């Protein structure tokens, strides 16, 4: 793949991320539209001279301009500056400067043609640039923090996938004692004296073995000993409820099991990830 194609792919990637941030956070559109509308009308005494329809059109215009900026201008600049390894502060200054100057020119042009302004007024132009710069700085800050969080989340997902690929969870030794036709995903282990019932996605099997020896080589990320006599896979924990003040677990099939009070908080966290919890 050529360097030009690589650059295009990177720009598309930046564009997808920025677009997802903009549409995930409506505050960006709201800030762009109404803060700039307020500045361009009330703050400069133009509100009384413009009809509601014109104000609405200007609001739509600023929103469209902002979307154009975030979709077509920011991705190439973000890619270029990432190659140059420039600090994000300088990136923001340049992007905000471009946005503010261009937006102010467009605003002055529209006002002149609407008859609101008689000509190009330098002080008013500077006011618009200054306010627009501050607004876009706030917007870019929101995007930067969201963008950084997306990168972190994406890195964690990739890292987790790589770790699972390179170091898949080891098959518990207790499953080797289960007949082949009943082997499947380990769901639950129930102890009764010197015997344990191994419950898999394909059936049940009883072994003469203590609970601790059954779970000693099971990875902690796969499940938890919710009670001294019950081990349960994390994926099976659906809800944590309380009955007469005593914690109980409801699995995905709706069955109820006792939970040790010492394990209640840990089980609650697992339930929050895989199901829900309530009192």
Automatic annotation (TrEMBL):
Keywords: Membrane, Transmembrane, Transmembrane helix. Residues 186-273 form the HTH LytTR-type domain. One of its GO terms (molecular function) is DNA binding. The keyword Secreted does not apply. Signal peptide: none annotated. The chain crosses the membrane at residues 21-40, 60-81, 88-105, 125-143. This is LytTR family transcriptional regulator.
């Amino acid at each position: 793949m050529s360097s030009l194609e690589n650059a295009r792919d990177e720009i598309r990637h930046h564009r997808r991320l920025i677009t997802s941030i903009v549409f995930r956070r409506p505050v960006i559109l709201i800030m762009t539209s109404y803060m700039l509308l307020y500045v361009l009308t009330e703050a400069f005494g133009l509100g009384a001279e413009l009809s509601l329809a014109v104000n609405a059109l200007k609001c739509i215009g600023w929103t469209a301009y902002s979307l154009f900026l975030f979709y077509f201008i920011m991705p190439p600049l973000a890619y270029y500056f990432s190659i140059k390894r420039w600090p994000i502060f300088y990136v923001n200054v340049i992007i905000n400067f471009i946005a503010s100057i261009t937006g102010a020119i467009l605003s002055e042009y529209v006002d002149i043609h609407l008859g609101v302004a008689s000509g190009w007024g330098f002080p008013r132009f500077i006011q618009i640039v200054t306010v627009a710069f501050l607004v876009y700085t706030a917007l870019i800050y929101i995007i930067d923090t969201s963008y950084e969080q997306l990168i972190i989340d994406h890195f964690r997902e990739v890292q987790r996938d790589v770790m699972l690929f390179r170091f898949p969870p080891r098959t518990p030794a207790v499953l080797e004692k289960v007949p082949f036709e009943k082997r499947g995903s380990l769901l639950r282990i129930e102890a009764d004296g010197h015997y344990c019932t191994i419950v898999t996605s394909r059936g049940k099997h009883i072994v003469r073995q203590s609970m601790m020896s059954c779970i000693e080589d099971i990875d902690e990320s796969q499940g938890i000993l919710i009670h001294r006599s019950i081990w349960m896979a994390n994926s099976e924990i659906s809800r944590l409820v309380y009955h007469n003040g005593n914690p109980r677990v409801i699995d995905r099939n709706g069955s109820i099991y006792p939970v040790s009070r010492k394990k209640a908080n840990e089980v609650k966290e697992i339930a929050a990830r895989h199901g829900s919890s309530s009192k």
